[in-house]
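Posting for a labmate who doesn't have an account.
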Amino acid sequence: MNTHLERLAQVAEIFARHGLGYLSSATTSEKWHPGRSPGSKTAISTPQRLRLALEELGPVFIKLGQMLSTRPDLLSPDYLAELSKLQDSAPPVPADVVRSLIRQELGATPEQFFAAFDDAPLASASIGQAHAATLLDGTAVVIKVRRPGVVAVVNEDLEILQNLATHASHNWAAAANYNLTGIAADFAATLRAELDYLQEGRNAERFAANFAAVPDIHIPRIFWATTTSRVLTMERIRGLKVDDDHALTAAGIDRHELADRAARAAAKMVFDDGFFHADPHPGNLFVEPSGSIGLIDFGMVGEVTMQLREQLAKLLQAFTSNDPSRISNALLALSVSPPTTDRSTLRQDTAVFMRLYEGKKLGQLDIAPLITHMLAILRNHHLQLPREMALLIKMLLMTEGMGARLDPNFSLGVVLKPYATRLALERFKPGNVAQLVARLGLSAADLGATLPERLDRLAGRLDDGVEVHLRAAELEPLVARVEKIGNRLVAGMIAAAFIRGLGDVATADGDRLRTWGKPLAAGGIGAVGALGAYLAWTGRRRGGRQ
């Protein structure tokens, strides 16, 4: 029997055995009470059954559960709490296998590259394990070695997950409000990136470059001569665990300063660098004897793209304006799920949310409750965040949790306030306004070029007689598209009317704006003019036929 089919049947059987048969398309002859797990005499909750099933399914599904435990926009608190218990651990790979793998990858035995190599692993997980070693020059390092055969196992399970997501999207009514195939694809991309130690090394070097001028943040050096896609050699970070309360007290560490420094590092990653560590749990942060914070494990990272920066800025401005409609629109713009929510109800829920925080400045807010409340609104309206935004929220929640543990008076809002203010104002910099106008003008020009042909086809079909059937639920996307077209036309008119004024104001970008001005203005006016002329001509044409 095909091993892939065998694994698929095994996945289906395990889900069914834990009372979760609806998660797969298969059934088994063995019946279990839907509220009990195998071997249990008492009923347990669905979140518990899901955790037990994922644990039994192995490393890929455990990591899926860990990822889902960071998605409060998708799952309710009881699922988040249960899935957060999942531990990514595995029996250690034997020392002789590790040494053989190093010899395969580096072309020589560990003794030829390292003055010392510890066969006992520092840690062992599903993807790989870490060993302490010393380079020939005396530098202490940690060597991460990828488990033999893990790539094939991961790829097979990821393929099964993506097939299940596709099947559920078409056959499970509860999945209609979620982009399951997108979630599966994002998870697959993230996990495959963790398999590539070359990528992790490049991530570490990017962080090191970003923090080169920040002396109290230590990013370990990567030693490329002994690094491949399966073996990673990095400088060893030594220090106190950031959650070791007794050791921090004994060392006389200023907890307030430590929490503030860690939060400022997180804010710099997000708002200044646009590249952040997406898994800053206490095990990945060390307080060094010098007082610096050492950061490790760069397999999971997030990136704040220009589009995401603009969306965040709009959301911040909407909060500042205290306008539920603007906040609702900003949330809808962030969502990657189908726009089928009731906008009126969303505005009402947003208005209730705003009243809870009315009159408070960002520095006075506890970020975690605010985010949790907002995510509950997203979840209730089936609005799904993009992967990078979900990673960003996870990172901010973890940062505030760590800060609150170190210092009960810690406020992430105080740290974020200047960065958030700068981000909100960034949209109005002359260069950014010029880019926005350029994009809007080009969109309008493109619209003007394609609309006449589309409208002509539509007019012809209407003349031939078309019977239209629309359900109420189908009108919302249609209205949204019409609104989008209207917004583009208005944008084209604005681009045409104000392009020269912007050029005069933005002196630094004046030459570039004036260079863009002619084609943009022509495109914007052309789009609107072409549409107006065409509509007038179509009206005359149809009037003549009557």
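Reply:
Got it, the structure tokens are right above this. Confidence is low (pLDDT under 50) at residues 25-37, 466-546.
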